[in-house]
Amino acid sequence: MPIHIVWDWNGTLKDDRTDLLDAVNHTLYGLNTPPIDLHTYQAKHIVPIRRFYDRLLNQPLSEREWAQAQKDFAAFLRDRPARLRSGAHQLLAHTHGLGHSQSVLSLYPEELLRTEVDQLGIAGFFTRIDGRRGSDGTKADVLTEHLQALAVPPSRPVLLIGDTLDDGVAAHAAGIHAVLHTGGLEPTQRLRSSDLPVVETLDAAVAAGIHHLTAPDLPSAVARAGPLNPVHPGPPPTPAVGNSPTPRSL
Fold first, then answer.
1. What does the alpha-carbon distance between residue 200 and residue 238 come to, in Å, rounded to a whole number?
2. 176 — phi, psi (to 5°)?
3. Is the peptide bond before 48 cis (omega within 30 degrees of 0)?
4. Contact by Cβ (8 Å): 104, 117
5. Do the Cβ atoms of 41 and 21 come closer than 8 Å?
6. Which letter, b or e, does each residue of 188-199 get, where b requires 16 or more Cβ atoms within 10 Å of its Cβ?
7. Using CB atoms within 10 A as the burial measure, which of 78, 88, 198, 250 is most buried?
8. Strands (DSSP E) along the chain, which ranges?
9. pTM of the full predicted structure?
10. For the chain, what is the radius of gyration of the CA atoms?
11. Residues in Cβ contact with 183 at an 8 Å cutoff, skipping those fewer than 6 apart
């Protein structure tokens, strides 16, 4: 049975944990704040990203500081060559060849996302590519709209593959299944607290998702989504459902 896979970008398809750490430290320098190490990055990572910076500075950012942080972050990453996770290109091609459809939904600025996807030569594998176009937010804010824009047939199960608890919360809110991948933006121990499948490779993520979604005893999208018990500040966010097929912001 064909399924549709919604891929996360940063920390999932894109192997950029080190680049993101360096970009954050570049923005912290502009905010007169000491750099952080990878452990601190993973321990404090949260979305919306502005809350992440609030945590790093131990105080809320002003509008001027937030605008400068976004500018410095994007400028730094434009100079870094994008790298796919090992085996990702072959996996995308194989998955496409099996008849499964695929898309990308990311909180990464859309200009950067589309540029990198094009440069890496993988745009043809995706039916839709959505990055952040407006204000900062969570993936639950836009996943439902992404799915509406895709117009996936009701009979086609949907799988989200990501590397953060926010990915899992978004999938649960939208009533779809998720598999979380280690080696990204959040520590493995935190991911395992979600009660979702947690795997170490993208191949394993696809295999686990397909196996789960094609099992004959899962009668509904809610059943496919499964339980979720995230270690996450506050209740799971409610997905925003808009009238337009185009996501407002990511």
1. 29
2. -120, 170
3. yes
4. yes
5. yes
6. eebbeebebbbb
7. 250
8. 4-7, 101-109, 129-132, 158-162, 177-181, 198-199
9. 0.84
10. 17
11. 11, 17, 85, 163, 200
Tokens at 106, concatenated: 């990311």
What is the DSSP code string of 82-135?
P-BPTTHHHHHHHHHHTT-EEEEEEEEEHHHHHHHHHHTT-GGG-S-EEEE-SS
Task: For the chain, 250 residues long, give each residue's pLDDT as a single digit of tens.
Answer: 899 999 999 999 999 999 999 999 999 999 999 999 999 999 999 989 999 999 999 999 999 999 999 999 999 999 999 999 999 999 999 999 999 999 999 999 999 999 999 999 999 999 999 998 877 778 998 999 999 999 888 889 999 999 999 999 999 999 999 999 998 989 999 999 988 999 999 999 999 999 999 875 444 333 333 333 333 333 333 333 233 333 322 2
Pull the structure tokens for residue 60.
């809320």
